[in-house]
Amino acid sequence: MTGYMSPIAAAVQPNYRNRVDGDAVRERLHLWPRPEGGIDPCNPICCRECERERTWKEGQAYG
Predict the structure, then answer these.
(1) Within 10 A of 5 (CB to CB), how many other CB atoms are there?
(2) pTM, rounded to two decimals
(3) Using CA atoms, how far apart are residues 19 and 54, in angstroms rounded to an integer?
(4) DSSP code of residue 35
(5) What is the DSSP string of 18-59?
(6) Cα dihedral value 53, 23, 20, 2, nearest 10
(7) What is the pLDDT along the chain (63 residues), one digit of tens a residue?
């Protein structure tokens, strides 16, 4: 493990928010559970867990 790893489930999926020439970009997206059931994939630009994985070190507990 080289850095912070989020406890939120994640999967590599097409991200249609960041299209390149009309094609979806495959990115690691966190899958946030909805209260009524189902899941919502994150927007990596705004997702707190994506930011933590990019910037935090292994074992870091807070920013």
Answers:
(1) 13
(2) 0.75
(3) 21
(4) T
(5) EEETTEEEEEEEEEEEPTTSSEEE--TTT-HHHHHHHHPPTT
(6) 20
(7) 468 888 999 999 888 776 767 787 888 999 999 999 999 999 888 999 999 988 988 878 776
